[in-house]
Every structure is written in C-alpha cells, then in structure tokens.
Amino acid sequence: KGFELRSFFRHAFRDFLPQSTLRKSKHGFGLPFGVWLLTYEPLQDLCYGALEALRARGIYRAGYIDGVIAEHRGGDPGYYGELIWVLAVLELWLQAQRQ
C-alpha cells in the first residue's frame, strides 16, 4: 500500500497484536497541532526554541532538524507538526532532568 503509515504498523506488529486489533477500523482524531504551529507565534517560539536547543546537543543531525521544520512549513504540517512536538517535548524533558 505504498507509504501508508497504518499499513506499515499493521505489518510490523502482525506477530504481536491480535487479529481483532489489526483489523479494527481507524477512529478518533488528533489535534491540529501542525496547523496551530504554523499560525500561533507563541507555540512557534516554544517549539522552535526547543528544537534549537536539541540541535545544540548534537543528538540529531542539524540537517535533520532543519528538514523537519522545512517539511512542516512547506509539506505536510499535520505529520511534521506532530514530529516537531515529539522532538520539542524530548528537549523540554531533557532540560527538566538537569534541574
């Protein structure tokens, strides 16, 4: 099914999850975080600041972080917005561990 993420996960977890779970239809919805990130400046400041700090740690290649931001702004704000959120929360968690 191409690059369909749901299909990928079904295939990857087929030996670990019951068939009833694998056959279950998609339901629910996510928050439009990626769209909010494009339009709400305080959220941009928080997330992009966290990504800058994460870049400085050297855990991820700087080009990777730049690419995620570029794809969010010009590609798929839903998917890349969630990825930015995950990376930003990681950095904020790392900062909290140092205190």
End-to-end Cα distance, whole Å, is 46 Å
What fraction of residues sit in β-strands? under 5%
> Which structural class should the secondary elements be placed in?
mainly alpha
Counting DSSP H or I runs of 4 or more residues, the number of helices is 6
Order of helices and strands: HHHHHH
Global shape: globular
Overall mean pLDDT: 89
Structure description:
It is built from 6 helices and no strands. With 99 residues, it is mainly alpha-helical. The chain has a domain at 31-97. Helix 4 crosses helix 6. The termini are far apart. 15% of the residues are buried.
Compact overview of the structure:
Helix 3 packs across helix 4, helix 3 packs across helix 6 and helix 5 crosses helix 6.
List its traits:
globular; 6 helices; 99 residues; mainly alpha; 0% strand
Explain the layout of strands and helices:
Elements: H1 5-12, H2 19-22, H3 33-39, H4 41-57, H5 62-74, H6 77-97
Helix pairs in contact: 3-4, 3-6, 4-6, 5-6
